[in-house]
Design goal:
This protein is an alpha/beta fold. Helix content is 40%, strand content 14%.
Length: 426
Amino acid sequence: MKKTVAVVGLGYVGLPLALVARNKGWNVVGFDVDAKKVQKITAGVAPFEDEFVATQLKDNPLEASTDPICIVDAEVVVVAVPTPVTDDHIPDLTPLTSSLESILPHLQDGQLLSVESTINPGVMTEVVLPIIKKRPELTIHIVHCPERVNPGDAKWSVANIPRVIGGFTKEATKKGKDFYESILDAKVKEMDSVMEAEAVKILENTFRDINIAFVNEMAKSFDKLGIDIKNVIEGASTKPFAFMPHYPGNGVGGHCISVDPYYMIEKARQVGFDHEFLKLAREINNSMPEFTVALLDRAKEKLELSEPITVALLGLSYKKDIDDIRESPALDMKKILEARSDVSLRVFDPHVPRMSTVDSLDAALTDADVVMLATNHSNLVEALTPENLKQYGIVCVIDGKNALNADGIAEAGMLYLGVGRTREAK
């Protein structure tokens, strides 16, 4: 007889995990408070852009509900709801606590409860456990297995990225490991405690944030010195040890790298420690949308552009080839450009048509003065060749991802301004 897993939260993490578990022979039921999302899923339609999800749902819709009672027959309950931050960068655990409170009346004795939501060290003990203890008559095996996803990555997916797990008891940890290894094509490392498991996700994402901030600051410095940051990184990458390439850009987005450091900063503050390094990294990375847009002033001066300058802002999602706009630096760039009286703005993202102001790349480029690439979608990069840009009469390209042919654009007679790299028109 098949065992059942209930997945709470059918977003970018929970839904792919549910489908992976189903493929490995588990009965799967999903719970989400978003009725429209549930309706799409049960109709076999992906609620967001994901090729794996779309293919899996098309001919075999997933059982999903907005009623938390659907978890009662599950041996395993996985909570994969978002954990955002407020506008003041304070952790907001409301989605997590609300979901736990909603399923609490329906939990059954002996169930394995896994929290995948990204949280700072201490949340499982201080927030999750007290909620579950409201049902003291139950023995619930509670673990934390922090999610690991990389949207748009053809190689690494929910199914094959290694994971870590930590439980409140050794029995819980073992049960959790057995479950995840039954659905994943990857190893699961047991941590010595729940808090260690919480700390793993925070460490890996703050590591990336700090290194991106470092290279963004170097890009700003090299920009002043006239040094090409991309070429320097490629040179440094020839060293076979002790160097790991990270690349500058117009900012850091998504629901992990741009959020998780704030969870650690706040938790450390509560116990009397000031994470100066993490705060500085956040400050640097948050400054990059403004730095990228400010390149327009350099173009305006060099090319003596008349106002209003028609700018085609291309891309809104936080990374290429997906429709996820959470914490996207492109949205900050859009706001900054909209506030400028010297700019006439057009916005186009083929993956986010609902927020585009024109319906095609052609409409965005026609009669535009400046192209500003904010997201390096594959189809945009392929289309923005020096030849095509020249045909549209573009005079300057501001490349927030350093993804375009800088030399070719300059040779075609246009000014190229990237993040830490410049090519004068020839």
